[in-house]
Structures are given as C-alpha cells and as structure tokens.
Design a protein that fits this description.
The chain has about 130 residues and is of the alpha+beta class. The protein has 2 helices and 6 strands, in the order βββββαβα. It has helices at about 70-85, 100-125; strands spanning about 5-10, 15-20, 25-35, 40-50, 55-65, 90-95.
C-alpha cells in the first residue's frame, strides 16, 4: 500500500493532503493551519453525469461537526476526486487558524485545489 502525501505552502499557510488506497477506493485527509483536526467528512460516489452520460459525475454526502465550516472544502474535494478517479472517495478535512480572515480562507481553498490536482494525478497513476 502506497500512501500519497502532497504538501502546499504559501504566505505562511500550509495544507497537507494524504491519500490512502483502500482497494480500488481512496481515503483522503486534508489538514492544515495551526491545529489539524476533524471538521467535516465527505463521501463521493462516482456516477454517470445526469447531463452527459459519457462523463463521470459524483454524488456527495457530508457530515460536519457543529460549528465547523470544512464541509465547504470536503464536499468539492470528494466530488472532484470521485469524478476524476471514477471510484468512491472519502475526504476528511480539518484546517484551523485563530482569527482567520476571508482572504486567508480563500488562500487555503486555493492551496487545497492545487493539492487536489496533484493528488488526483498521483492517485490515477497508481490506479493504472
């Protein structure tokens, strides 16, 4: 079993994406900021697109801890990875910075998306 780690850093911010293969499926943890934790979990299940059956889309279910907002990262990450890899993907996410400002939140989201692009390529190579 090969674990894939992707780290992204910019302007003093950091995120880590770790993917663990589970048979043909993937379990992905996204952490970062000052205190990694569990804020939300999303399950992406691939399916044919409702608009174009030749494309793969995904259905995503989310659980969010009360008071946390990581569902806004976990949901699109699970959708992106399940659609791209065409296999079920679980994404757990916990990113925390005290007194975070909107611009910092946007930068974390950008770093996660950059990491997801790299992660999808690496996972796809392992899938064959």
């Amino acid at each position: 079993m090969e674990i894939i780690d992707v780290q992204k850093k910019s302007d003093g911010l950091n995120v880590t994406l770790r993917a663990v293969p589970m048979g043909a499926d993937w379990c992905v943890a996204i952490t970062g900021g000052e205190i990694p934790h569990l804020g939300a979990v999303a399950l992406g299940v691939p399916r044919p697109s409702l608009q174009d059956s030749g494309r793969t889309s995904a259905t995503v279910s989310v659980l969010t801890l009360t008071g946390h907002k990581e569902d806004e990262i976990a949901r699109p990450a699970a959708y992106f990875l399940a659609s791209r890899l065409k296999t079920p993907v679980v994404v757990s996410c916990g990113i925390h910075n005290d007194q975070i400002e909107p611009g910092t939140i946007r930068r974390f989201v950008e770093l996660v998306q950059e990491g997801l692009n790299e992660l999808a390529l690496a996972c796809g190579r392992l899938q064959g």
